Amino acid sequence: MQNFSFFNTGYEAIICGLSAAIIAQLLKVIIYIITHRKINFKIFTTTGGMPSSHTAGVVALSTSVGIIEGFSSIAFAISFGFSLVVMQDASGIRRAAGKTAATLNRLVDEFFSRNHEVKPYEVLKELLGHTPLEVFCGMLLGIVVPFMVHYHSYLKASLQHLC
């Protein structure tokens, strides 16, 4: 049986992308607990908020491809371009859609409150996109995670040497 190789493969890149996205979602829960002083695990499954998990995931994928294949490789160029599109979408189109949803929710509330009618309607989701700071923090997380995963043995040896 052949030994399973994780490092310097596509598996490493996939794990880095997924790990960064999951860490970002966990950070959202922690930030929510700190700012609101209550627990809301629904935050783990929502879009929007600090940091951007979409950005963290795609940047981690791109960074790990750069570490493995080289930052001058075609594979890195493709993944980097993909990352730019996702980051622009997160802070641009999806953020605008969230602002539109907030405006429509407010208009519907005002309409029904003035007419004294209570009609069931679906409230549109407002937290869809990200501020530039949320995207930037997701990008930083997406850069750090692959370096930590790829160079974990070097980090471990360095930390042991310090102790």
Please characterize this protein's 3D structure.
The protein is an all-alpha fold and 163 residues long. It has one domain. Helices cover 70% and strands 0% of the residues. It has six helices and no strands. α1 (10-36) packs across α5 (132-150), α2 (53-69) packs antiparallel against α3 (74-91) and α3 runs parallel beside α4 (93-114). The longest helix is centred in the first third of the chain and has 27 residues, at 10-36. It is elongated and about 70 Å long. The mean pLDDT is 82.
Features:
163 residues; 70% helix; 0% strand; 6 helices; mainly alpha
The counted number of beta strands is: 0
Mean residue pLDDT: 82
The total number of structural domains is 1
The first-to-last residue Cα distance is: 38 Å
Q: Count the DSSP helices.
A: 6
Molecular shape:
elongated
Taking pLDDT < 50 over at least 5 consecutive residues as the criterion, the unreliable ranges are none
Strand content: under 5%
Strand and helix order: HHHHHH
Q: What percent of the residues sit in helical stretches (DSSP H or I)? A: 55-70%
Sheet with most strands: none
Rg from alpha-carbon coordinates? 20 Å
Determine the structural class based on helices, strands and strand pairing: mainly alpha
Strand and helix map with partners:
Elements: H1 10-36, H2 53-69, H3 74-91, H4 93-114, H5 132-150, H6 152-162
Could you give a short description of this structure?
This protein has 163 residues and is mainly α. The chain contains 6 helices and no strands.
